[in-house]
Amino acid sequence: MAWDATKLKDWQIAEEAEKTMPTIDQLVEKLSLEKDELIPYGKTPKVDFLKVMERLKNKSDGYYIEVTAITPTPLGEGKTTTSLGLIEGLAKRGVKVGGAIRQPSGGPTMNIKGTAAGGGNALLIPMTEFSLGLTGDINDIMNAHNLAMVALNARMQHEANYTDEELAKRGLKRLDIDPKNVEMGWIIDFAAQGLRNIIIGIGGKKDGFQMQSKFGIAVSSELMAILAIAKDLPDLRERIGNIIVAYNKKGEPVTTKDLEVDGAMTAWMRNTINPTICYSAEGQPVMVHAGPFANIAIGQSSIIADRLGLKMFDYHVTESGFAADIGFEKFWNVKARLGGLKPNVSVLVATIRALKMHGGGPAVIPGRPLPEEYVQENLELVEKGCANLLHHLKTVKKSGIVPVVCVNGFYTDTEAEINLVKKIVKEAGARCAYSNHWLEGGDGALELADAVMEACQEKSDFKCLYPLEMPLRQRVELIAKEVYGADGVDWSPEAEAKAKKFESDPHYADFSTMMVKTHLSLSHDPALKGVPKGWRLPIRDVLVYGGAKFLCPMAGTITLMPGTGSDPAYRRIDVDTKTGKVSGLF
Question: Which keywords belong to this entry (predicted)?
C-alpha cells in the first residue's frame, strides 16, 4: 500500500511500513535461501556471502540494473528514492527483485544532509537502524583503521627509544619511518572539523611518538574503499596488507604488512563482507553494504552485494553515487571491470528542477525556498537544460549499456514539461519514463519498471572506455574529453612527475583510475552548469591507495573530514524514554 506522503513525514511512513517487515523464516522463504545462510541481527539480518555464493555458483545471473543521474542541484536528484521506487515497481510486475545501496555515514546523518534512506513511499526500512550504525560495519572499519595507526605510533615510539640491537631482541626490524611523511590518519564517523589537524604524543617518552596527525571521516577510510571492491575474503585480506600507512626516510612505502597489523585488521573486518538485509517500504529486500566516498573511491555499494544480488534476484538494482560523469564512470570502468560484472541497463535520473537549473535558472541553495522559476512551468529553461541530460545519456551509450531516462516526479512538474523531456530523449534514441514513486510507491513506478524490463531484453554490448594497459595520463585525457567534455588536461609539475613515476613502475600497472573532481558540474568548477565548453581539466596531484589499488588524479581540493554546520540534525534527535523510539532523524 501507499501512504499519503504529502501529509506524513518519512519516519511516520517508516513506522507504519515496519509493522509488516518479514520474520527470518519468511525472509528465508522469500529469498529462496537456506536458514543458515541468514545471520540473525535484530531487525536486519546479514546474508552469509560465502555460503550463498558457494551454493549458487552455477546459477545464471539475473538482469543487472544501475542507477545514476544528471549533474545534480545541491539538493540531489533522488537516486536512492528512484532505486527503491524502481524495485517496488518491478515487484508490482511480479518479478523477483532486490537491490543494493550504500550504508550512510553518521557524519551527514547527524549534520545537515541527513540520512540517505530515500523518501515518501520509496524509502528504506527500518530507518532508525539504517541511520544509526546498522550491523556495525562502519564501527569494525573504524577499529581496524585506527588499529593501524596505533601500530604505527607505537612502532615509531619504540624505534625512537631503542637501539637496533634492542629492537632485534623484541623481534623487530627498524622501519625508519619518516614522521613528516605519514600517509594515514585516524578516523571517526562524525563531521568534526576540529580534528582535521592535530598533534599526538604530547607528554613524556612513554606517551607515544609526538607528531602532527589528522582525522578523516570513517567512510573516507581506504578500508571502506577496499570493502566496496573486494571480491571475497582472500581478496580483502590481501588488499588490507598492502595499505600504505607511511613512508620511510628513503621515501619507500611502509605498509600494514610491514607493521604486522594486517592480520588483526582483517580479524576486525571479517564480518563486514556479509551484506545486511533491509527492505523497501513495500517489503522488497535491499542489501546495504559499504559506503565509500564517491570521489576518492567508487561511491557505491559493494561488488560483493551485486554478485549476491545477481544470484538471488531475477532483477538486481544497484545505485552509483553522484552523476554519470563520476559515479557511472567509476561503475563502468572500475566496479564492473573488477567484479567481472556485465550490466544490462543504466537508469539516468533527472528532475525538472535540475533541468531548469542547467538551462540558466537561478542558484538552488539548500535551506532556502526555491525561486519561482522552479515551481512554475518554464519550458524554455527545461529545453535548454536538457543539454546536460543528453551529455550524460551519450556517456552511458558509450559504455554499451542500454540507457533509460527516468524523470523523478515532483508535484510542481507540469504535463507539458514532462512531455518535452520525453520528446527530447526519444529524439536522442532512448527510452524515457516519468515516475511518481515518492507519492505512490510501486504503483507510481510502473511506467519506469516497464521501460526497464523492456530495455533488459535488448542486447547490452558492454565495454570499458580504456584498457588497463593504457598509461595513466592517457586514461585521464580520455575521461576528461569523452566523459566530461573538456578540451584537454593540464598537469601541475608535481602531478605530472608522480604520473610519470607510476607509469614507469610495473607495480602500478593494474591500479584503477579514480578521478577526483566536483560533482556539481561536468567541469572542475562547480559554478559551471549545463554543458561547459572551451575548458581544460587541471590536475594538481595524484593520490595513491596501495591496498585498494587506486591512483586518484585530483582536479580540485578534497577534504576527508567534513565540518558540522550551525543547525545540525542532532539538535532535533531524541529518544522516547517510555518506548525507546528515536525521533527527529528524518
Answer: ATP-binding, Ligase, Nucleotide-binding, One-carbon metabolism
